[in-house]
Records
---
Amino acid sequence: MNLISKKEAREILKKNLPKLPEREDHEAAILKRLYSLLQGKSRIITYAPDLLYEVDVLPVIESCPLPRPTGFIEARHSAKWYFPRMEEGKKLRFLRPYTFEKNSLGLFEPVGDEEISVEEAELILVPALGFNEKGFRLGRGGGYYDRILNSETLQKKTVGLSFSKLFPVPFLAETHDLKIGKMITEIQIHSFLD
């Protein structure tokens, strides 16, 4: 398999993700697989998805203040859910929201007072455009998650979500790239750090 640059991989994924056939059905299957990993967890970090490019996790979040259709998911999980907020210096804080606001990139960020560290979280769902065959994440290029989830202990708590038609993405990972613990497609759960 010929490897491509991360820039090329991002361009290909951004072109193909919005046109993925049967996307809503695939997302429902991914969330059903995810639900089994949520059991017994009470403090979970997640993300507010960019619906063009990322799997929509919001239908499983019982307390989410963002309105989302939930007809295709059987159950919602009642954990305390925390969402990322970008700070100066390319840092992330994870807050339990009572509402959301859009940031300068057009992404929803939480407004809230209760904060959690990545060390305190029991599970961390990471946004991504895609993943390579070894479990390295391809994000938007800002490095936010690469910096904050920089140890194997933390990476073992991470879960990425993607579509089987776009996995694996044949990009060359760099030494600073985040390797995730598990990645879920509509077909199966892949484990990378067990």
---
Amino acid sequence: MSTPVDAEQAWNDLQRIRVPQERVYDEIERSASGGPGAAYATAAVMWVFLAGQGLDLSMWGVVSSLVVYVALLVAVAVIWGRRSRMRLHHSRCNRRMSATFVMGAVMTGGTTLLAGRLVDSLEPMTAALIQATVSTAVFLLFAGPARRWMADSARLGGRAGR
């Protein structure tokens, strides 16, 4: 019933399976900790949008600027998504990814609202510039470590954050 197993051949077979999987994890980590271009582009779009809100626009101006803002964010996501060499057939959104998204939204949105409240007494354009700068800085400070923490969950293989 038992067949002889060559230990060296078994080890080589195991390495042949493990190496491509490790390369996938390495690529995920590289793309997550790699160039911060998408974060900078997103921050620039956010800064221009928030600074533009200090122009005292009419309702249609606010709505049209919001539409342009969302369209630019989608464009940044599409452009940077196409640049990624990583193409996983099945991608799963685990708890770490969801938590990263929610924490980022809470931190950036909360900072925007808090900064808006704190600079209410200033003239609108100055207040908008301060609010945009503070909110963008918080976004950039959060984005780097959050991406690395989120990508780390892929290497752990579902043992963490699920």
---
Amino acid sequence: MYPEHPGHLPAERAVTTYQPTPITPAVVVQPAPLVSVQPGAVPSVASIVLPDGRIVTGYAISPMQPEPLAPKPAVSRAAVNVALGGVGFLAVCGGLLLLTSFIAALTAFITQLITLAAVIFGGWIAVQILGSSSHRSGTTVNIRRAVIKRNKFYG
């Protein structure tokens, strides 16, 4: 797929094989002398001789101190959230109760106004119909007997 370089044919490529070199404990090295260092500037170096004769040298590490725990509050956050949710729910319920009471009172008031209007209007109609016969006003119509013979009106 890729063109080969003219000077490097596949048969001419060199293959390199690497073999690991085993470590043999041939020489026992004496531990390095401890050097006193000013405190706070450079940490002290420690050397340890292992049972097989190897020497490990490194810095001494002080153990990690865990961070102090923050004091726990007297009441957990979950309890505070539940309490605040309950207070909010009660506030909403109280508002809905007031709204329902207001709507019921408004409905009763409108019903009373309609009833009052019906009573007043009905009374006015009754007075108009059943009023005194001496005080009549309007057009007087005289009705006489009419005769209809053979689909003809004789008035």
